[in-house]
Specification:
The chain folds into 2 domains: about 220 residues, 3-Layer(aba) Sandwich (Rossmann fold), CATH 3.40.50; about 250 residues, UDP-N-acetylmuramoyl-L-alanine:D-glutamate ligase. Strands 1-9-18-17-16-15-14-13-10-11-12 form an 11-stranded mixed β-sheet, with helices on both faces. Strands 4-3-2-5-6-7-8 form a 7-stranded parallel β-sheet, covered by helices on one side. The chain has about 500 residues and is an alpha/beta fold. Helix 4 runs parallel beside helix 5. Homotetramer. It comes from Dyella flava.
C-alpha cells in the first residue's frame, strides 16, 4: 500500500503492536533494530527542534520505551553532548536490557530516581518512561517524577507517546507528561489526536522508521484524520433553488443570538435559502441584523408545518429550549422525516425521548450532551471518546460529531474520522450554533450526512484557526463567518 494511502490513517495500540510484530516476523527486522531506528528518529527530531541543545537528561522506564531512551542517550553521547540517564528501575528486559547495556558500555553510569531529589539542569529533557501500553495511573514514584518534569519548565521531548497518556483513547487516568515535541513511531496512534492529548503531545511528528509500504497491507485503519475539503465550484447557471432551502428552528425567549448565528453560518456555507422559525419577539432583530434570513414567528406546530413543507433540510436546536414551545416544534420537526442536524436542546430533548432516525441525520453533541444521550457521566464519555462516538451513532442510527479537542465524526457502520484542526479560542458561546448551520448547508447542497458532517467539521475548525491568527482569547463565533466563506470556496491560499 503506497504511503500516501495510509499517511492519514489512525490505529489502535493493538494494531500498532501487530504492525511491529509483522516487521519482526515477516520482514526479518529485529526488535533491537527497530529500537535503534526509533532512537535515531527521535534524536534527529531533538536536534532539529533544539539545535543549540548541549545538555540532555533522559528519563527511562524498564520497558521498550525506556530502551528507545537508552539508545537515544548513546547517540547524544556519541555526538558530544553531556548526557545523564535517570531510570525508574534497572530491571529492563529483552531488547530494552540490550539498549541499557549499550548505554552502560558507552557512558558507564545511570542514576536511579529517588523521590524528593532535585532534577539535573539540562537544555532538553527526554521522556522515555512509559510507552503505548500504559492504560493505568502511573505508579507513585513515576507520578512524582512526571510532576517534577512538568514543573521544571525545561523543554521536553516525548518518545512515541507522552508518559501517562493512553495512546488508545487520549485519556489520562493520572498525571501525564506535557511534552513540547512528541516523536511517534511506525504508525499514528489514534489517542494522540483527541481528548487530553491536545495538552500533552505538543508538536507531533510521526516517523515510520523506514518500514516498507507492504507492512500496512491488510491492516485496515481504525480511524482517519480529516482531509481539508470543500465543495466544487458551482455551475455557471446555478440558481438559489439548486443550493437547497434550510429551515433553522430555535431561538426561545432570550436566545435569538443562537438561531441567528446558526442561520448566518448556513448562508455563509452556501445554502440557497435559509428560513428561521423562532419566537415572534425575535423577528425585528433578525430582520434588522441579517435581512437575508427569512425569519418567521411561530407559536406552535401548525405554523411550523407550513415552513417545513418548503424546506429541504432542518437545523434544530440552537436556542430551542426544553419547554412546551421548544418541545412541540422539536417533535413536529422530527416527525416530518426531513434530513436534519440536531444540536443543543434538540439533543437534550432526544435524550428524554430517544428515537432512531431513518432519514439522514447528524447529531452534534458536546461531551455533556453525549453523556445524557448515552446515560453516562461526562467522565465516562471522555475516558474513551472513540467508543462513545460509535455507540451514539449506532444507538440513534445517525452520523455523530462528538465535539471537543480532536472532534470525532462517527458513522453508524463504524467509520470514524478525527478533526486535526481547531484551537482553545473556540471554547466560547455560539461555536456549536455555527457548526449546526454549516453542516445543514452542506446537506442542503447535496452532501450525504457523512460527507456533510466531515466537511462541515473541517471547515468550522479551520475557520476557527484562521480567525485565531489575531489571538485565541476573545475569539467570537461570528469571527468565523468570513473565514467560512473563504474556506468554503477553496480560497485559503489566496
Amino acid at each position: 500500500m503506497p504511503a500516501a494511502q495510509h499517511h492519514r490513517d489512525l490505529y489502535t495500540v493493538e494494531q500498532v503492536r501487530a504492525l511491529d510484530r509483522r516487521a519482526i516476523d515477516d520482514l526479518g527486522i529485529t526488535g533491537f533494530e527497530l529500537m535503534n531506528r526509533a532512537a535515531t528518529a527521535a534524536f534527529a527530531g531533538l536536534c532539529r527542534h533544539w539545535p543549540e541543545a548541549r545538555r540532555i537528561v533522559v528519563f527511562c522506564g524498564p520497558g521498550n520505551n525506556g530502551g528507545d531512551g537508552y539508545l537515544l542517550a548513546s547517540l547524544a553521547h556519541g555526538a558530544g553532548m553531556a548526557v545523564e540517564v535517570i531510570e525508574l528501575s534497572d530491571a529492563s528486559r529483552g531488547d530494552a536490557a540490550g539498549a541499557r547495556d549499550t548505554w552502560l558500555r558507552n557512558a558507564g553510569i545511570t542514576h536511579h530516581w529517588q523521590q524528593h531529589t532535585s532534577l539535573p539542569l539540562a537544555d532538553v529533557y527526554v521522556d522515555a518512561l512509559y510507552g503505548t501500553g500504559l492504560n493505568r495511573v502511573p505508579e507513585p514514584s513515576a507520578a512524582d517524577l512526571i510532576e517534577r518534569i512538568n514543573a521544571s519548565a525545561v523543554p521536553l521531548l516525548a518518545l512515541d507517546v507522552p508518559s501517562g497518556l493512553n495512546a488508545d483513547t487520549g485519556d489520562c487516568p493520572g498525571v501525564a507528561i506535557r511534552a513540547d515535541l512528541t516523536v511517534s513511531f511506525i504508525a499514528a496512534k489514534r489517542g494522540l489526536y483527541t481528548g487530553q492529548a491536545a495538552t500533552r503531545v505538543g508538536m507531533l511528528q510521526l516517523d515510520t522508521l523506514g518500514l516498507p509500504d507492504i507492512l500496512w497491507q491488510g491492516m485496515p485503519a481504525d480511524a482517519r484524520m480529516l482531509d481539508a475539503t470543500h465543495l466544487p465550484p458551482r455551475a455557471r447557471d446555478a440558481h438559489k433553488g439548486d443550493c437547497g432551502h434550510v429551515l433553522a428552528i430555535g431561538g426561545d425567549h432570550g436566545t435569538a443570538g443562537a438561531i441567528r448565528l446558526c442561520g448566518e453560518a448556513t448562508l455563509r456555507s452556501g445554502a440557497g435559502l435559509v428560513s428561521i422559525a423562532t419566537r415572534t419577539e425575535n423577528i425585528f432583530a433578525l430582520n434588522s441584523a441579517r435581512p437575508e434570513l427569512m425569519a418567521h414567528g411561530v407559536h406552535g406546530p401548525q405554523e411550523l408545518q407550513l415552513l417545513l413543507d418548503r424546506a429541504d433540510v432542518l437545523a434544530v436546536g440552537p436556542g430551542l429550549g426544553q419547554g412546551a414551545w421548544g418541545h412541540a416544534l422539536w417533535l413536529t420537526a422530527l416527525d416530518s422525516g426531513k434530513p436534519l442536524v440536531l444540536d443543543a436542546d434538540g439533543l437534550n430533548l432526544l435524550a428524554r425521548e430517544p428515537r432512531r432516525f431513518s432519514a439522514p441525520a447528524v447529531l452534534t453533541p458536546h461531551p455533556g450532551e453525549a453523556g445524557r444521550l448515552l446515560g453516562k457521566t461526562v467522565a465516562e464519555v471522555q475516558v474513551d471518546r472513540f467508543a462513545s462516538a460509535r455507540a451514539l451513532a449506532q444507538r440513534y442510527n445517525a452520523v455523530v460529531v462528538l465535539k471537543g479537542a480532536g472532534s470525532l465524526i462517527a458513522h453508524p457502520d463504524g467509520r470514524l474520522d478525527v478533526c486535526i484542526w481547531g484551537n482553545p479560542g473556540m471554547a466560547s458561546g455560539g461555536m456549536g450554533d455555527l457548526l449546526t448551520g454549516v453542516v445543514a448547508a452542506l446537506l442542503a447542497q447535496g452532501c450525504s450526512a457523512w460527507d456533510a458532517a466531515r466537511m462541515g467539521v473541517g471547515l468550522h475548525a479551520r475557520a476557527g484557526d484562521m480567525a485565531a491568527r489575531h489571538g485565541e482569547r476573545g475569539l467570537l463565533a461570528s469571527d468565523l463567518l468570513d473565514p467560512l466563506r473563504t474556506l468554503g470556496n477553496g480560497l485559503e491560499h489566496d
